Amino acid sequence: MVNSFESVLRKAKEIERKTVSVAVAQDEHVLEAVKAANEQGIANAILVGDEKEIREIANRIDMDLSNVEIINELDIKKAARTAVECVSSKRAHMVMKGLIDTANFLRAVLDKEIGLRTKGLMSHVAVFEIPKFDRLILVTDAAMNKYPDLKEKVEIVKNAVMVSKALGNKLPKVAPICAVEVVNPKMPPTLDAAALSQMNARGQIKGCLIDGPLAIDNALSEEAAKHKGIESPVAGKADIMLMPNIEAGNVMYKTLAFTTESKNGGLLIGAAAPVIVTSRADSYETKMNSIALAALVAELLN
């Protein structure tokens, strides 16, 4: 099982090289990540955007464009549509957001004519390598679904399980995170957690182990779970943290990213192909990690 981003990159190099289509590609950190992915044999690229700016940035970062396809499109909305169409037409395996706002990028992804819309729910899965843990920790959903109901949480779990399986985890452990570890009718997330656990036990949600509600200390620390007398196959061993809403997910994501010596990457799952939506504040390394994750998911989908 993959337990670090070093092994993520190693595994991504072992599979067939993928192609990433980049929407509005004239962004230095994005091009640095694309350059690294190309040099490491993980992904070729189709760059859609302002060709003059792309070439200027590439020259500045010493990026070889001789084997990179560039599609010159100055209009950002048209560039996003073209990048997505490269994936829907099977010229590329995944699409990545460049120098464009997320709303316009996702409009292209979800376009009924050329987009990657499916019947499933799209959700964001963040993957963290945290020094004190012997495994990668997945956090979902920190960016896409605001206040998911039970039905939506089932889909969010399934999407996260797909990413975990792409990383080689055949039976990931899912912890529905709540403020407490007991069911409280006045706290709706605990009711959802209990329902998800029961659905999993009855085979309605397959391919993982779900147990909750669990407070975050009990999900991550065997010692904390033992201290509270919690006996569970998930407590202290969680691979996937299902957050109750976007506020909790976003706070968790940014706390891990900015206050720990962690590495991370992330992507949107639930479309016809992986969608890489990184923040402008994200480092080149995070963007590179996200491309590698997307390559592994694309391999699983193909």
Automatic annotation (TrEMBL):
The keyword Nuclease does not apply. InterPro entries: P_Ac_Bu_trans, Phos_Acetyltrans/Butyryltrans, Phosphate_butyryltransferase, PTA_PTB. Its EC number is 2.3.1.19. One of its GO terms (biological process) is butyrate metabolic process. One of its GO terms (molecular function) is phosphate butyryltransferase activity. Keywords: Acyltransferase, Transferase. It holds the Pfam family PTA_PTB. Residues 76-295 form the Phosphate acetyl/butaryl transferase domain. Belongs to the phosphate acetyltransferase and butyryltransferase family. This is Phosphate butyryltransferase. It comes from Oceanirhabdus seepicola.
